Amino acid sequence: MCRRSWRRRCASSTDSSWIGPCGCSASGWSWCRSSARFIAAPIARAARMLESMEFLAMVAHESDSGIVLARQQVGADFLGPGDVTIKVHYSSANYKDALAITPRGGVVRKYPIIPGIDIIGEVFATDVDDFAPGDLVVAHGYDIGVSHNGGFAEYARVPADWVVKLDTLNARDAAALGTAGFTAALSVQSLLDRGLTPDDGAVLVTGATGGVGSVAVDILSGLGFEVIASTGKTDAGDLLTELGANEVIGRLPEDPEAKLRPLGKAQWAAAVDSVGGKSLAYILSSIGYGGAVAVSGLTGGSDLPTTVMPFILRGVALLGIDSAYVPIDRRRELWTKLGKEYRPQHLSRLENYAPITDAEKVLRAIQGGTHSGRTILGVAGEF
Ligand SMILES: NC(=O)c1ccc[n+]([C@@H]2O[C@H](COP(=O)([O-])OP(=O)(O)OC[C@H]3O[C@@H](n4cnc5c(N)ncnc54)[C@H](OP(=O)(O)O)[C@@H]3O)[C@@H](O)[C@H]2O)c1
């Protein structure tokens, strides 16, 4: 098996064709015809360099006062197992990253860990043919940032079948989208797969100023849907209208104390919900005949106090959305679509930027419910 990344010109040679001892470069050494000797291939050099290198990371540690995120120099033992080493350009701030630094947050099994469920950057070294040094890539989900060191570091290493080559987006836009944007796209895709069209009626988006919600509003509006944005932030009307919401309403149900009816007035054709809990129960009872709810989150709670009525009397479907273990082919397809037909039209309006050293501050804002939109965490050059 030849490794494209080895096919480089030797600095001391004018010969650009490298031939390994068996006619390819798979042995780890390449034959340089002009100097008539075997020379370690660049990939082997990069791999050796990685084994001895040190780099900077934000590492989450458990302490008596909770979980702290500390800037730290780490060694190659912090690179997880995998065949693709990525020089990280960006990560981003997601709800799950906030849980990773929350005591009993339920997502990290063992500390210390480098959080960062999103890794966006360029391939630094690779053991597989599918990637070459310099390729722009995104990796997210699987165990990244929860049990496999993640994107809050200058370098990260992951298995090749967790990696998506960016073909329609630049690295910064991919970071602005991140896991939350991907989840929004997955939610929209699942509604479209069920046959939803703009002619069916309005689509509700809950947690509308959040990462999943804000990108969902933008994508749905770009696809021609009438979008109703539900938010708990009273000052978010202008933002959500600019993202494409036709109407902005408060959190649901309007009266959180009122007893829920098994079926209420049909108000929406479908919903993208990242809130869960009582809000989701209310939404299910208010979706029109044959409608669907794509549910991805639980910021409002994990209980679902509903009945079977919406399902058996209105044919409503509850579509579960999981971004972490989506098969890699579907994941790659969706990332391509995020740069084309699903490309949010107002990404610059919903994105914020912070250096990685401010990650803890941003994640605490997510925990406190004051964060809006998406925050890109700049890694390269920001330590
Ligand atoms: N299934 C998956 O693969 C997947 C992937 C990504 C995220 N998620 C989940 O989806 C949810 C949202 O993630 P995110 O990254 O978008 O988080 P986020 O950026 O922090 O947004 C969450 C939004 O939820 C709303 N919210 C917060 N507390 C609430 C409460 N007590 N009741 C009702 N609404 C509340 C707020 O929006 P408003 O102020 O506008 O109401 C907030 O901005 C999280 O539960 C996350 O774990 C799941």
From TrEMBL:
Keyword Zinc-finger: no
Highest taxon above the source species: Bacteria
Catalytic activity, EC: 1.3.1.95
Family matches, as CDD domains: MDR_yhdh
SUPFAM superfamilies: GroES-like (SSF50129), NAD(P)-binding Rossmann-fold domains (SSF51735)
Domain spans labelled Enoyl reductase (ER): 63-377
GO terms of molecular function: acryloyl-CoA reductase (NADH) activity; acryloyl-CoA reductase (NADPH) activity
Keyword vocabulary terms for this entry: Oxidoreductase
Pfam families in UniProt: ADH_N, ADH_zinc_N
InterPro entries per record: Acrylyl-CoA_reductase_AcuI, ADH-like_C, ADH-like_N, ER, GroES-like_sf, NAD(P)-bd_dom_sf, Zn-ADH-like_protein
PANTHER family: ACRYLYL-COA REDUCTASE ACUI-RELATED, SHORT-CHAIN DEHYDROGENASE/REDUCTASE
Protein name (database record): Acryloyl-CoA reductase
Species assigned in the record: Nocardia arthritidis
